[in-house]
Structures are given as C-alpha cells and as structure tokens.
Amino acid sequence: MDTVSDSSKAHTTRLIIALCLAQFCISADIATMAIATSALIAEFNSNVEALKVASTIYPLIGASLMLTSGILGLYIGWRRLLICGLVFGVMASISKLYAPSIEWITMVSRTLSGLAGVAILPSSIALVIGHFQPDKRAKVFGLLAASTGLAAAIVPIVSGWMFDNLSWFSGFVATGIFYGVALMCAIGWITPLANQKPKKFDSLGSVLSACSMLFIIFGLLKSPEWGVLHNNSPYDLPVFLSFLSPAIWILIGGITLFAWFIEHEKKFEQKHDSALVPSSWFHNKQFLLGVIILISMYVIFGGLNFTLVAFLQIAIDLSALQTGMIILVFAISLIVFSIITPIAFKQFNEKYISLCAFALCCGAAGLAWLCSSAYEVNRLIYLAMTIFGAGIGMLSSQSLIIITKAVGEKEAERVGGVQATLRNIGIAIGVSVIAGAGQATMEHKIRNQVVSQAQYSHTIQQAVGNSLTIPYITDSQLTQYLFETNIPKSEHSTLLMLNAESRLINFHSSIWLLFLVGLIGIGACSRLAIK
C-alpha cells in the first residue's frame, strides 16, 4: 500500500511540474519578447512602432480563439491540446532564430506564440480540474499562478543579460529550451482524460466568438492611441461616424457580434444540446459574479504594470534595473501568496479570501498614491508592491475556484477558455481604460494651463492647441523639443514643471481608477453565496 501511495504521489508531483512548466513557458515567452525591444530594433534597424504591432498580435490571437479552444479539448483531448500548444511554442522560438525581418517576427513568430497560449491556457485548467478533486484545486491553481509570477520575475533579468552580453536571439533560444523541456514533460508525465465529445461542433459560433473578441480587444487596445470621443487616428471617417474614434466603432461592432453570438448559442444549444458557452451560464448569478471578480483582478494586474512602469521610467527616470527591482518585489509577493493562501487560509471560504485580497489592492493603491511625487517615489513603493502582489496572488488561487464551483463539476473542464478570454479582456481594459484615463487627465491639465494662460508664448499655445494628442515624455525629450521649436528659454522651466505635474496627475488618476476597480471586486465578492 505504501508503494502504491508513493507512486501516486510521485505521479501527482510530476503532473503538477509539467503543468507549471507549461504556464512558465507562456509567461517567459511574453517577458522575453518585452525585454528584447532594444535588441530587435538594433538587429533589424526597426523602430518602436513596428514592435507595438508585434506586441498586439499575441492578445489578438489569444482573444479571438480562446472560447473555441475551450471546447476543442473535448474533441481531441486536453493532453493533446496542451502538447499542440507546446509544439507551437517550440516552433515560435525556432522561427525567431531564422527571422529575416521584424515583419517575420510579427506575423509568423508572434502568431505561433499566440496559438501556443490559446492551446496551453485552457488545457492546463481543464487538466487540473480533471485530475484533482475540488478541495485540492486551489493549491494547484496557486502553483500555476506562482509559475507565471516566477517567469515574470526572473526571465526579464536573465534574458536582458543574455541580449546584452551574448546575441540578439539568445533569449529566444532559452525560451525554446523551456518549451522543449515542458513538451517532453507533458508527453511523459501527463495522463489523458476521458472526455465526452459534444454532439456537434459549432462552426458559426466559433467564427462569431473569434470575430467579436478580435474586434473588442483591438478596439480596447487602440482606444488610447486613436481616442474615444474624438478621432485622433490617421484615418478619415464618414461625416456621420466622425463624432467617435474608429476604436470605439470597432468596439461597438465587437459587442454587437458578441450579442449575436449569445443568441446563436442559445439556439444551437437547444438544437444540439451543446454550445461553446452554455446559455445557463448567462443566468448563473455565481458565475457572473465570478466573471466580474476575474476581470477585475486582471484589470488591476494589467493596469498596474503598464501605468507603474511608464511612471517609473518616464516620469521619474528610473533605470530598467531599478524598475525591475520594484516589479520583482511585486512578483515575489504574488508567488508567495499564490502558494501559501490555499494552505494557510484553507479554513476560510473563497468569498472572504477574495474580499480580503481586493481590500489589499485598494490599500496598496492608496499607498502608491501617497508615496509618489512628481520626481520620485519613496521607499513605501516597495510596501505598496508587496501588498499589491499579495492581493493578486490570493485572487489567483481563488478566482477560478469560484467559477468552477458556480458551473458545477459536469461543465467545470470548459471554463478554461472563458478564463483565458477574460484574462485578455481584463488586461486590455487595464491598459486601455486605466492608462487611457490617466493620459486624458494629463492632456486636460496641460491644455488648460497652456492654452488659457497668457504667460505662455503663442508658439507653444498653438502647438498644444493644434495637437491631437499630447505625448507622455521625459524631461529630456521635452527639453529637446523646446529647443528645436525655438520656444523662449524663459518658459522652459515652467513647461518642464507643468509636464512633471501632469505626469503625476496621470499616474494618480490611474491609481485611483485601480482603487475603484478594487471596490467593484469587493462588491462582487460580497454578493457571493457561501457554499
């Protein structure tokens, strides 16, 4: 009996390691691409704008195919889907080594990476649900979240050193090795699940979900650049559409397609007794509250990372290493609390743990506001990041438990696609709405000060008044612009101070929005039923 028990424990350990490695690979892939900016620009004589396009491919592919992927595993098997995802990851890494241009990386490598994420995320969740009893899942989900945090913490540092000291592609070689090891572990250590295939595959529903999510995510990602109420894009719209930006029209189109998708799913389910998203989920209060909790968590995660890094590196001119150390504190705290929450707080219901987690995020937002000024952040920023990491780590271990309990064991395996879709939507909202709102307050401050006050020269008033957007720039960039446009030197110090104060308003506005999102999370958690 001891031998059997030891064998079972060893198998469980190997299964967890394989799933954690798969999650690690996704995060490592994203982190390596993010830190490779300067190396890719130098190698291919490219620019930041080209890399922005590359960075949008991954979430667009992920958002458009996640719901379909969430049911595809029932047809081919979740283990096979995970293996396919890891193969795509290996192919993506290899394709970067032979890339002839930045366009190749954008269209081929990032597409393959997006397909890897599409397959790995929902299959990992389904394999956890299929292999572990409900009372064990929180610990495993916590370990998966910790794996993601570990990659986010160490990969930028290691890959950054490799890009600086070895070659432009060395970091991608390391990522390919991670994918290869994870692939071998998945093949050797994960046993397949017995799945009941749905009666009919919903082709039209797959197309509708893909198009609607593609439009919604693309619209959200482009709204900070193209504007909301005003068209700041380089495209001319017909007169009857010109009162909104193209990003909002794309977003409206995506929401319309999603409404069509929901109606189609109801009819398809009635006819074939299966659907990509069961209609009962839309009437399930616990599930809908879980959706709000999950989106709120990812909005905070995405909005915090984007807003904080921009403020640290642009507003107060911290180096990449100094910024990385602050982010590292956040990542370590996330890892620790993802792991210990299901163990240390197992006597508490996920409702109260999630309430506490969102309260921590609200407290951390207030602390981040207090410790920041126009030209520095004090040491309390490390405490704020620790608390933020604790809150996100606690939520990472509990949010999926809330959703899986809401839908029941019969349909629990299928929530992976929904979770991954909500992840993309939440992060997109965090980047677009949270950061976009901060940008709007900054522009409002600068325009009001410059255009309305006579102390500024006509040249700078005209430049600000005629510009569609006001960029978020460093003091050195602004100084260079002032010299190039022959703005009187007597105005330089005043404009530099205004720029600094406006960047701080940008950061504080975004932080307070994160606080409000935390309150929304608290409200959703408080309405959860205790089971």
UniProtKB/TrEMBL annotation:
PROSITE patterns: MFS (PS50850). One of its GO terms (molecular function) is transmembrane transporter activity. It comes from the Bacteria. It is found in: Membrane. InterPro entries: MFS, MFS_dom, MFS_trans_sf. It is a multi-pass membrane protein. Keywords: Membrane, Transmembrane, Transmembrane helix, Transport. GO terms for cellular component: membrane. This is Permease. It comes from Vibrio crassostreae.
